[in-house]
Design brief:
494 residues; alpha+beta; Cytochrome p450; 2 domains; 5-stranded mixed sheet; 12 strands; 48% helix; globular; disordered C terminus; binds protoporphyrin IX containing FE; Cytochrome P450; heme; iron; NADP; oxidoreductase
Length: 494
């Protein structure tokens, strides 16, 4: 066990008692068992949803301990806003994110703040998400969406329901692979997920299981899983090496991979090393599709459950896009209501449901909880987004009008954080929002979405969130509503 003294805390997992001298002030579940900790009512497959349940009972800051690892969670709006202060706090690479280091190394997502490759890669790659770059990706995004709709047309004609998370994963993987790396995984031609997806899901699930198991026992309990994980990592590396090698023999079109291979830092002239490029490609292929596919899947679930919201969104698409078969780049951001549907889905189920923050210096959180330099906490976005003090007594209900401009202005800052915060917030935010709004617009325009009658939302966790077993029936579109019925609908219930 690491030292408890000294100004800077050790690397690796740091249990809360190391960094929070007044930990006893923070509520915890009542029944703590010796050795194992707060495991009553906990399920290794749903640590996030368990934490949400505990959090509701214990309040805006609480702690949980499992097998000697104690974690402080925060979901109070004021505390979360304090943690967003970049002068006092920074991203903490710990827990699930640190568990991905063996595969993603010092790639953007998993880099420690002090690692020079973070700033270098950030500066080299940020222009890859500029408006100009996004405009270049737009036609490729459209082309992939058309592949999805070809497939869905076939399923509709055959009267079969579609596998939403499976197909959204195909769509978002193809989109990031083509726009970022000029690569075609051929996902839509396959009946099973591409082995890259299987390997990726395997690695994410493994990283999550390491979070919840006792460190000394993990090698024994996970022996078989560890072996599989090594095979998965080897597959991810091989795939990425092949993508990079192919590009070295041909030229790209100024995409992310070109930037990685050819662009020097504008001030220092430094370039990314081949090993770091490998880490970045894996990072972008994973971070660039897994969360967006979940966000699209949740949004489609809510649209199917709320036909009034779907009708209003569809009417907006008709009005803004008219008969244009292929909407232009600028026409996507004009789908304001569709975007609210997406925001509201990301509020209820932020597909990256938490992020970790660490103290830059000794400090006191909320004027009550002292933290030593390097002490950290997990901001539970999924519960911050359902905090009744911010979102009202109906916080659990789906209602896109929460994101109309007046409502947004009236809310405190830092209460909606699906893309994280500060310097280490999501670099792909605009990419994800453009892609998802475009795809929702296209799907709404083409199909009526009908849920399976008995479906109840179940959420699968593998660091990210995904609706489990979600299948939807596609019907031909009903005739367009007359303009009178296009007025805002009453609040959508659950
Ligand atoms: C709805 C979709 C998405 C969500 C909800 C999401 C969420 C997040 C969050 C919460 C973080 C911060 C994590 C932390 O603080 O530890 C993050 C970081 C990141 N995301 Fe996303 N993301 C999405 C889409 C994307 C896309 C499309 C890309 C790439 C094309 C991407 C690439 C990244 C990268 C590289 C980072 C690390 C940034 C850094 O530390 O410099 N993400 N994302």
């Amino acid at each position: 066990m690491a030292e408890t003294t000294g100004a800077v805390l050790p690397k690796g997992f740091r249990s809360a008692e190391l960094g929070w001298p007044e930990l006893h002030r923070i509520p915890r579940p009542p029944y703590r068992l010796p050795l194992v900790g707060d495991v009553i009512g906990a399920n290794v497959r749903s640590p996030l949803q368990d934490s949400m349940r505990f959090g509701r009972r214990l309040g805006p800051i609480f702690r949980r301990k499992g097998f000697g690892k104690e974690i402080v969670f925060v979901w109070g709006a004021e505390l979360a806003a304090e943690l967003a202060d970049e002068t006092r706090f920074a991203k903490h690479v710990g827990l699930g994110v640190a568990n991905l280091r063996p595969v993603a190394g010092d790639g953007l997502f998993t880099a420690y703040n002090h690692e020079p490759n973070w700033q270098l890669a950030h500066d080299v790659l940020a222009p890859g998400f500029s408006r100009e770059a996004m405009e270049g990706y737009h036609p490729m995004m459209l082309a992939v969406a058309e592949r999805l709709m070809d497939r869905w047309d076939g399923e509709r004609a055959a009267g079969r329901a579609v596998d939403v998370p499976g197909d959204m994963t195909k769509l978002t993987l193809e989109t990031i692979a083509r726009t970022g790396f000029g690569h075609d995984f051929g996902s839509f031609e396959r009946s099973r997920p591409h082995p890259f997806v299987t390997a990726m899901v395997g690695t994410l699930t493994y990283a999550q299981r390491l979070n919840v198991l006792p460190a000394p026992l993990a090698p024994v309990l996970l022996r078989e899983a560890t072996r599989r994980n090594e095979a998965h990592m080897a597959y991810l590396n091989q795939t990425v090496d092949a993508v990079v090698a192919a590009r070295r023999h041909s030229s790209g079109e100024g995409d992310l991979l070109d930037r990685m291979l050819e662009t020097a830092h504008p001030d220092t002239g430094e370039r990314l090393t081949p090993e770091n490029i490998r880490r970045q490609v894996i990072t972008f292929l994973i971070a660039g599709h897994e969360t967006t596919s979940g966000a699209l899947s949740f949004a489609l679930h809510y649209l199917a459950q709320h036909p009034d919201v779907a009708a209003r969104a569809r009417a907006e698409v008709d009005r803004v896009w008219g008969d244009t078969p292929l909407p232009a780049y600028d026409q996507v951001a004009k789908l304001r209501y569709v975007r609210r549907v997406l925001d509201e889905s990301l509020r209820l189920w932020p597909t990256a449901p938490a992020f970790a923050r660490e103290a830059r210096e000794d400090t006191v959180l909320g004027g009550v909880h002292p933290m030593r330099t390097g002490a950290w906490t997990l901001v539970l976005t999924a519960l911050l987004h359902r905090n009744p003090e911010v979102w009202g007594a109906d916080a659990e209900e789906f209602d896109p009008d929460r994101f109309d401009p007046g409502a947004v202005r009236s809310r405190a800052a830092h209460t909606f954080k699906p893309f994280g915060t500060g310097a280490r917030a999501c670099i792909g935010r605009q990419f994800a929002l453009h892609e998802a709004t475009l795809v929702l617009g296209l799907l709404l325009r083409r199909y009526e979405l009908r849920p399976e009658p008995d479906y109840r939302l179940r959420v699968a966790e593998r660091l990210t969130l995904m609706p489990e077993g979600l299948r939807l029936h596609l019907d031909d579109r009903a005739p367009a509503p007359d303009p009178v019925s296009l007025r805002p609908v009453a609040r959508a219930g659950d």
